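Please go through the protein record below and explain what the tokens say about the fold. Record follows.
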Amino acid sequence: MSSELTEQQAFLVLNALPNIGPITLNRLLEDLGGDPRAVFTAGARQLESVRGVGPVITATITQWRDHFDLAREEERMAKADTAFITTRDAAYPKLLKEINDPPIGLYRKGSYTFDQPCIAIVGSRRTTLYGQATAKKLGTELARLGFCVVSGLARGIDTAAHEGALSVGGKTAAVLGCGIDIIYPPENLGLYRQIEATGAILSEFPFGRRADRQSFPMRNRVVAGMCEATVVVETDVSGGAMITARFAGEQGRLIFAVPGRIDQSTSAGCHQLIRDGATLLTGIDDLLSELNYLDGLRPSPIPDKPGAAPLAAAGLSAEEAAVWECFRGGAMLTPDALAAQTGLPADRLSSTLMLLELKRLVAKRADGAFEARG
């Protein structure tokens, strides 16, 4: 009986039913009091009072067993160590709840709970060595600074971004355009397992669902929706990354595009985004400066290992080394705090900070404080 469904099971069934989009599902939940079980106990007249619901959707809901094998799905989830998180769960990405059509639930492998701000890095599957190197470098630097790097596990830019984050022990999440049990492309099996071990694999699609022309755009809206900003590294004008960027714009997120060669088709999409108002990105500082204007979005960097010396401290003068040492562990310090710690007078501290800035070891924040670069 439908009335015997638990709340979690009701969410799982609703999420899997065909021909019912996320917007309609969210309307059903809102109009029927928020309990997914009420959708299955409501009569046809009550269901069809919800905007967008007609006889076809009503029949799909009332005859849901013809469309979805709940017991089989739960068995698959148990064997694959997969959870199903809903918008009511703390582990559900918070920003994703704010978009117009959030998934009512997500399949998740991995234990990461998205407690750090997320940045998407997306781009073409057919990419250049320049694009791969750029995506990996951005993924590395963002992860080192404490951001979660989000992408789609595809060949090319996505793979490079995930690998960059993993290379420094950072967090990364892959959003799939197919069921969570399908690894595509198959050569990314090892990468899939690495992400599952330390981050998260997400999909809104039931087990066994193959990717198609509809599922990839749905995946792209999730990638953009769960992130503070989307960085497009390489794409042609018709690439899937352009769809992700469009969703980011519609959702009010920041959009960055990496410029490339003017005769390279894989950069044509990025150049179009820049012409259309995306922020040109030439390095991680371009993104950080934009986030600083929004205040409070910077996470804590990955801490140094105990006893480790700060990075890039070699070749500094005694005063530069003393100031640089204050930033061990990711501290953000005002000039007054630095003066108190180092004992340097204001004029010498100012010149020392300027030299450290020129050496790209520290950066001045919008609030006047300083911090070490990632």
About this structure: The two ends are 56 Å apart (CA to CA). Residues 129-144 form the longest helix (16 residues). DSSP finds 16 helices and twelve strands in the chain. Confidence is low (pLDDT under 50) at residues 306-312.
